[in-house]
Amino acid sequence: MTRSNPPVDEADENDLEIGKPKEWAAGIPGVYHSMQPALKHMGIERSARTLLAMNQKQGFDCMSCAWPDPSGHRSTFEYCENGAKAVTWEATPVTVASDFWAEHPISELRGRSEYWLGMQGRLTEPVYKAAGDTHYRPIDWDTAINLVSEKLKGLSSPDEAAFYTSGRASNEAAFIYQLFIRGFGTNNMPDCSNMCHESSGVAMGETIGVGKATVAYDDFLTCDLMILIGQNPGTNHPRMLSAMEKQKENGGQIVAVNPLPEAGLRRFKNPQKPRGILGRGTDLADQFLKIRAGGDMALLQAVSKRVLEAEERTPGRVLDQEFIAQHCAGLVELREHLSHLEEQTVLDATGLRSEEIDELTDRYINADSVIITWAMGVTQQKNGVGTIKEIINLLLLRGNFGRPGAGASPIRGHSNVQGDRTMGIWEQMPASFLDALGREFSFEPPREHGVDSVAAVRGMRDGDIRFFLSLGGNFAAAMSDTAATEAAMQNLEMNVQISTKLNRSHTVVGQEALILPTLGRTEIDVQASGPQFVSVEDTVSAVHSSEGRVEPVAPGLLSEVAIVSRIAQATLGPRIAADWQGFEDDYDLIREHISHVVPGCEHYNQRIREKDGFLLANGPRDSRTFNTPSGRARMTVNELDPMDCPSGRLILQTMRSHDQFNTTIYGYNDRYRGIKKGRHVILVNPEDLALLGFRDGDLVDVHGEYLDGKDRVLRGFRAVSYPTARGCAAVYYPEGNVLVPLDDTVQGSNTPVSKGIIIRLERATNGPAGGSSEENKHDNMPETV
Ligand SMILES: Nc1nc2c(c(=O)[nH]1)N[C@H]1C(S)=C(S)[C@@H](COP(=O)(O)OP(=O)(O)OC[C@H]3O[C@@H](n4cnc5c(=O)[nH]c(N)nc54)[C@H](O)[C@@H]3O)O[C@H]1N2
Ligand SMILES: Nc1nc2c(c(=O)[nH]1)N[C@H]1C(S)=C(S)[C@@H](COP(=O)(O)OP(=O)(O)OC[C@H]3O[C@@H](n4cnc5c(=O)[nH]c(N)nc54)[C@H](O)[C@@H]3O)O[C@H]1N2
Ligand SMILES: [Mo]
Predict the structure, then answer these.
(1) Is the pTM of this model over 0.85?
(2) Which ligand 2 atom is nearest residue 656's CA?
(3) Which CATH number is 650-776 given?
(4) Which of 23, 422, 614, 667 is surrounded by the fewest CB atoms within 10 Å?
């Protein structure tokens, strides 16, 4: 089915509507809204078949986020509005027709919005842009694979290529992808994790010896206290609200730390229960700390300091001395360091009152089991790695590891981003993994670390990286410093994108470019040996299978596994001992190799077929084992270096609306925040707005203030008076990426600082963004199809 009336991508930002932010999430509107996209895009029958197969045994894993299924999962039918949007966006019967490519030069596609591009429907045939050509043209698969492998073979060094991965790729695809890349001879593997939870991996690896959550699903239900820092579950992990509701029913408490009073942190009306729909719902946060952006490290240090002082007042009553003596190192240094922490420094950095921090400390000390969760509000701050180390410090003080209801829990984003890392997608995999890989496939993997996402852009810019291949994702739009990233990508000799739908990265091309369309997770995948399933890992290390249930949208589509296998075969030939054809024919063969290479995945084929899959081992969670050089969990000393925001300036974060999945824009309402029909807004505290001489609704230009002296600006944004913390502001991602400098990254993880940008507002020089100005045209989102 092709679209007869292409959606327009010109929105009139004068239609923007601002209402009151919501105080609760889901409920009847949740159900209503969750059905709308499906019915509109897929029709009743395809909708029912698809939505009912989601997160079920013998169904497919929801591709929206990495939140786990309830234990004994797949007996409970649990799905959410944003999962439904993700599924219908993929399972739409609308396809891009062959004549589309001749009708639309790449220069025109480049002017289109992400929304428009995505709404053209599913990609169904490989297309190629030759050097000097202005259009993509359909080609056959053999020609496409050949073009890619010939280009790769012609490079003077394997390091002239970089291979990106987005977190939707299955374990099977990811495993053979990294095998191919290392067989080719490079570790240049930038991935979406570099922009996402890299800070969590670094901080947790150094302190507790594992970069993953130390809790299982049931721990969320039974913990006495859950502290959510820098995370918006109502929009980004909506099924987490059910777990929070159960935890409250079990008598637990919740504290939320966020500059924005997000609806999903306040009250939840469970759409799966009649009471939830009709009643008042469940109050979630017992305490809400409206923190100044970037202030979390100061807050955590202040709480730890208070905990240590309480122990001094009542020795033996506050710290878990036994746990610390047996399992930890560094308490003396931590105590000494925190003894110098000035309260006024904390209050300035956090914008909080001492009593609020006292209250949080009391809750923490009085709770027997505590889980701290976090996401991008922490990992994308300049001090993100240090902040997470302070989360670990606080948890260690009271032994909140390796017992029920206790632990550290980064909440991962993409549905299989954690699995991809487990399978070896990382530019710096440890020697033990490379050794095992080399033994299994009789070759010597490259040892030198490869480029991450930021370094990949620098490499393209400087001409060191000439070839780029993406397994999913939308690198051009997801990366920081849009102008720098796009200029770098235009320097490429070849840009190859394995994708389900059109996006910005297909339009930012250098000499040659290819788009290779692939099957989505919802679709039935039949190979020579019969129907195949794949496997994925969620945010609490539960691994399970995923099997598509709907007919592929077009006959010629190849699976990710097939595409990678064919490129590898054509490029490497017999260079390494891998049966690429066998991998494509039968995914069991891939899993057999995974069993031999990936720690914790022994007997993978058997265990993945068990009813609910299996849980990967985790030292801190299972046995209070800490895989650090000393064998102890490390309490660390982290220098507090509060963000210096001069007066008249604001700290800007870039965030997700309720109508998007990362760079995919489903529509342009942000229901819970009360913003409708537009995305070109900047949320500012009313007092700050007045102080800066603006009024609610004024049009402003948002200027970044940087050391590099470059002027990065978002023009014509609507100022919205919003109850965010004082001194803070928020715009949507990816529009806001224009303002994040390439070189401004988190210390220790090199993640772009997407949540801590110093800005100033000026009166807009032109009309609203998204009008007719060429500069803004591409990020202009219309409301409906
Ligand atoms: N529907 C939907 N689901 C998604 C996604 C999506 O785009 N749409 N994306 C997926 C991905 S890849 C990811 S990584 C996750 C992201 O999930 P989140 O991390 O929840 O996503 P963000 O919108 O970036 O929101 C970050 C939150 O941090 C807060 N924040 C900002 N700065 C600070 C700070 O300095 N301190 C504190 N304490 N809070 C701060 C913001 O106000 C916001 O509430 O969601 C995943 N799930
Ligand atoms: N300023 C700012 N920048 C950010 C962030 C932020 O908060 N602020 N967040 C960062 C984060 S947390 C992340 S994770 C990254 C996300 O970065 P990416 O993972 O690169 O981006 P996505 O938007 O998730 O990728 C969407 C594209 O993936 C393709 N796709 C979808 N499903 C499939 C599939 O099954 N197979 C294949 N092969 N392709 C598929 C589609 O073509 C779609 O257009 O962005 C980061 N960038
Ligand atoms: Mo992410």
Answers:
(1) yes
(2) 7
(3) 2.40.40.20
(4) 23
